[in-house]
Amino acid sequence: MVMAREDSIGRARHSFARTWADAIAGTSYVPLGPEELTAYLLGLTDRLVDALMAPRYDPAPAGRVGAGLAAAHFTDTETLSRSVAVLSEGLPELVGTPAPPDLAVRLGQMSGALAAGYAAALRELTLEEQEAIRSAMLVARRDAEQRLAASEARFRAMFTEAAIGIGIGDLAGNIQEVNPSLLRMFGYTAEQFTRLNVSDMVHPDDAPSVWPLYEQLVQGNRDHFRIEKRFFRSNGEIIWTHLTVSLVRDEAGAPAYQVAMLEDVTERQRLQSSLEYLAYHDPLTRLPNRALFSDRLAQVFAEPAADRRIGLCFLDLDGFKRVNDSQGHDVGDQLLVAVADRLASCCGPGQLVARMGGDEFVILVTDSTGVDAVVALADGIIATLVAPIRLGGQELTVTASIGIVEQPVAATDPADLMSAADITLYRAKSQGKGRYAVFDRGRTDNEIARFTMSSTMPSAIEQGEFLVRYQPLVSLADGVLSGVEALVRWLHPTYGLLGPDRFIGLAEETGAIVPLGRWVLAAACEQTRRWRDEFGARAPFVSVNLAPRQLEERGLVADVTSILADTGLDPHELQLELTEQAVMRDEAGPMKALYALSEMGVRIAIDDFGTGYSNLSSLLRLPVHGLKLDGSFIKGLRSVDDADPTDELIVSTLVTLAHALNLTVTAEGVETAAQLERLCSLGCDAGQGWFFAQAGPAADIAEMLRVPGRGPFGV
Ligand code: C2E
Ligand code: MG
Ligand code: MG
Predict the structure, then answer these.
(1) 465-466-470 Cα angle (round to 5)
(2) Which domain holds residue 471?
(3) How many angstroms separate the alpha carbon of residue 538 from the centre of ligand 3?
(4) Count: domains in the chain
(5) Which residue has the CA at smallest separation from atom 30 of ligand 1?
């Protein structure tokens, strides 16, 4: 199957290489038969297709392919233009699926790179050829008498057969001899040519740059110069050439005459500039494309003045996919063109609008005067998009979200700037449509950290990066360590030991809380059973936090059942802590789970009680066994005369009510002896807090259990 597929890919490429060979055969004189040429082009085809399909497009291979064409002696530019035509048509069909989304852009850039590589290699070749001719001439002049004739003949042969134009003139610029290539190039007869002076053909715009060089040469102060310049042909047309002029000296070393060698690069220049346009512009909207934008951006960073600032509006149309899906791609395309026009109309000098792909655009402010100016630009863009766009009898309204970044050039780099713009655009989108957001470094660092943390959490569970700490729950009547709360921590490889406030919210959002919660439950149950094995009846029960999302999970009851079975823990030794919000809901599923757990014998406690404004009496209808009073109420409990009367009243009321409902009360956040004393006198059942102990490793709890009698907190 795989073989068959590879075969068919190979056949397609081979047949393409043959088409290419047919197209360029005869454009230049090349000593290759049709089969050899096809084989050679097949090699180039493979390189081009591979480059097109690469995850990141790199123009270098196309440049090397262009150079390869020149190296194979395809020295006529006709070869290049035919190749580009054949490649643009045939290559897309050779690209496998899925094709890269920016295939069109890649093809454009590929043609440009190919032409540039070809031109550069051809120039090299020409220079080599010119050097050979020049040295042959020098040899011809200097050689001994008897070898003169042979050298002369060799020079003659090169002179007449050379592909480049060669002209010989005296020091006054009178043309004395020209070769056939030069005649063809300029369209004169040899007769007409020899009546001309060099100055007659120089394009007036080039004169200032040419004459000083020319003067130095004829005066013997330089031996040659090279320049790209224009001439007039016999019919008045302009011809672009690479020109090399060399000085030939007489026996005594005095300047004798000059030799000009010219290569016609007119076609290549025209082709190259149109290919360059293609490579740097989006064919649909005619706006600069990503490649041009990146070039311009790099240029700004290459010239960073001390106080230079850069601004960027990164823009994405809202709901463009819907337009495309419902109205068709033609309408989508027209809409993009209309938007591009409006964007271009918002921008002035020093501002570059580019299409980055799809419905993404960017406006680069190369010398920003401050964030206000860039915000004003974004405001202008949002305003200009308000008016409906009329397309083929219907009116479409479009809005865009914009991420704005404005910074000193010295404080950032292109990659950083783009990722800041990306994140800021994302934030603008999430705040609603048709808005802009301005980049804020502190906030973004946080978002990046959150983003990376949430995506690595599942694997972190498997890697064993999480651990459980235990905090004593102390019975206030006798000071006995009756239970422990299991509190999770993340030993993060980059950020160090993280508390749950850093990742539990995130885990809830992403759903990672489900596997994480299951892992904590299993670890805590396992640990508690070990204490029971070692300490028997003195061992504490364990209280494990359950996130709302876990309660919604269908498998919760089954998970708890199997964890208890696997670890050998009795259901009475487990308490689950839930917040008011989690339990006070109408949905049937979570309620059923709560009842099932309770019936198994697992205790349910309401965590952070008092912060959720729930109606205490409605809790009565739920299978709840205890309340954990939020630490904020305990803060106001100090010594009798110094107490906050409101907190004091709340705590005493809650304790009374809870007891009336047959619920136990645990006070959270007990930090002082005074608080403990007040809680005892108000009749609170249990306490938890730094006054007793912070959350610590399991070994600390074992230490406490080893203290004889009622333990370390016993009274
Ligand atoms: P929580 O369940 O109310 O846990 C009590 C928190 O109060 C713990 O913070 C504990 O260290 C802290 N604390 C204990 N005594 C004192 C004190 O005297 N003063 C003060 N100011 N604070 C005290 P921690 O460990 O940072 O946990 C924070 C929250 O994270 C927990 O609040 C709980 O809601 C959540 N959490 C912790 N572990 C898990 C877990 O495994 N699963 C789920 N779903 N949530 C967890
Ligand atoms: Mg808790
Ligand atoms: Mg709590």
Answers:
(1) 145
(2) 453-705
(3) 24
(4) 4
(5) 500
